[in-house]
Amino acid sequence: MAKKSFVVIGLGRFGSNIARALSEKGFEVIVIDSDEAEIQEFTDLVTHSFVLDATDDKALKDVGVADVDVAIVSLGQHIDDSILVTLVLKELGVKEVIVKAVNERHGKILQKIGADRIIYPEREVAIRLAESFVSPKIFDYIELSPTHSIIEIAAPKQFFGKSLREIGPREKYGITLIAINRKTPIITDKGTPDFTEDIIIAPGIDEEIGEGDILTLLGRYEDLEKIEKL
Predict the structure, then answer these.
(1) φ, ψ of residue 38 in degrees (nearest 5)
(2) Which CATH code for domain 124-228?
(3) Whose C-alpha in 98, 115, 159, 219 is 20 to 30 A from the C-alpha of 74?
(4) Which of 87, 99, 78, 145 is closest to 7 using CA atoms?
(5) Are the C-beta atoms of 19 and 46 separated by less than 8 Å?
(6) Cα 32 to Cα 14: distance, rounded to the nearest angstrom
C-alpha cells in the first residue's frame, strides 16, 4: 500500500516541524513557501520544494499539488492568504485539507469554505500544558506532534491486578504502554521500611499492573484523555 503524499504550504515554525516529521517518517513531502531562504533549508530533506505564490492556482497545479493526499496550510498571521489557498486546494480536488487557524473567527471561515480539519496549535499546546499542571494524575508530559504525546500517569484503579493481555492498551484504548515505574516496599538491613524503584521497559503482555504503578503512555491526545478519566 502506497504511503500518503503531503504538501506543506508555509514554512513557519509549525509548517517546518510538520514537514520535517513527515519526511523523517518516509512520506512523500512537497513544501511550498514564497521565501526562498526558507525553502533552501528543505531542499535536501523533502521530495520536492518550490518557491511560489500558493494563492496562484495554476502554479499549484503545475507542481502537482492536485495529486497529493493531504495538504497542510500553515501561513501564520496571513489570514487572507490561508483562506484563499484553502479555496484553491479544494477546487483542485485535494482529498484532505488541514489548515492552521490563528483564532476562532478564522477557523469558522475556514470551516465554511470546506477545510477538512482546522487546528489551533498554540491554543492546543497551552491547554495540554495547563492540564498537565492541574491534573493530580499526570506526572510528566511531552508533546511529540500536534496529534500525539507521551505522558506519565498513575495507573487507573481499573487496571489494578490485571495483565496487559487483559487490559489491551492498544486494542481497547489505542495507546502504547512504553514503561512501568514501580516502587516495591522492602525492609532494609536496619529493619526500617523503604522502597526499591524498578523501571520495566516495554513490559510483556503478562505483566500485571499494581497499585502505585506509574505508566508511561504514548498515544493520541484524545485517547490519552480517556485514560486520564478512568
Answers:
(1) -65, -40
(2) 3.30.70.1450
(3) 219
(4) 99
(5) yes
(6) 14
Predicted TM-score of the model (pTM): 0.58
Q: Where are the domains of the chain?
A: 5-119, 124-228
pLDDT per position as a tens digit, 74-129: 997 789 999 999 999 999 999 999 999 988 899 999 999 999 999 887 666 555 55
**Cα(176)–Cα(196) distance, integer angstroms:** 25
In angstroms, rounded to a whole number, what is the distance separating the alpha carbons of residues 175 and 168?
Answer: 9
Report the pLDDT value the prediction gives residue 57, as an integer from 0 to 100: 93
Q: Which residues pair with 39 in a beta bridge?
A: none
Q: Which amino acid belongs to residue 163? A: S
Mean pLDDT, residues 14-42: 90
Res 62 pLDDT > 60: yes
As a whole number of angstroms, the distance between CA 19 and CA 223 comes to 24
**Residue 98 identity:** I
Topology of the domain covering 5-119: Rossmann fold (3.40.50)
> What cell does 114 get?
470546506
171 touches 209 (CB < 8 A): no
H-type alpha helices, the chain: 13-24, 36-40, 57-62, 79-92, 104-112, 121-134, 164-167, 169-173, 221-228
Residue 204, number of CB atoms within 10 A of its CB: 9
Angle between helices 104-112 and 79-92 (to 10 degrees): 20
